[in-house]
Design brief:
By secondary structure, the protein is mainly α. The protein contains 14 helices and no strands.
Length: 294
Amino acid sequence: MVRKDEKHLTTDDWPLTTSNGGNLKKTLTLIAILAIASAGCRHTFRGNTGGGSSATRSFHASFDPALAKMPKEKVFQLGEEQFAKKKYQKARQYYSHVYETFPNDPLGRRALLRVADAYYEQGDAGNLVEAQYKYRDFINRYPGSDRADYAMLQIAMCSYKQMERPDRDQQKTREALEKFNDAIKTFPRSPLRKDMDARLQDVLDRMARHDHIIARYYIKRRSFNAAVQRLNGIVETYPNYKERDGVFFDLASSLAGLGRTAEARLYYERVVTEFPQSEYAGKAKQKLGNMKTA
């Protein structure tokens, strides 16, 4: 399409040539110029359709002028209602409005935490990454807040929720261990300390169980030296491991497999005396009886 103020190009505007080759060249050039001009007009027309750029349209699509007319408490409550219905994405829209409009207000600070909570509750890996970012953002912005300990606990919980089974890779478990230790070190007197300690022990048990599974694989393969090394590591590193009775029993069995009978007897005896109600206690007594008759 050619604008009205543009002069139409015709063959009369070109100098005459005296050969057929010149006329052909003139015609092809004219066609090319007209095609470019027409394409430019179409592009301009399409670009202006819809009333502005894509960024502007996106802004207008996400901006709800009705929220600006509501009290911040009402908007926050709308977020809470959506959160209770597990409509977390919708809840975040209300929380984000409160936080972005009132970032220094106590309710605005609380809204930023709720944005993070909404990501956390969705639970998949991508949303947990977003939740960690938002909790960290809260701590960076409001380090003196009385909710900073909660935010730091939740950072650790984001890794905790992604831990694999004990027989799988423990990268996320190690991440959780580091983050729980950071939270406890930073807020040793937090009202949330009991929760931090409990979750930390869960993480330690997961890591100990991982090593225990490997040790039992070595025992099955009769690689007793490797098993003893792994089991001793559990005893030293995880003193509160809930399956410590099983570790002692397996350690005694591995030592017996290496012919280290006196050491094996000591660990069987520990199973009997320290864990009399354990499922391993009866087995340990039987092993001790066999050693006496051997």
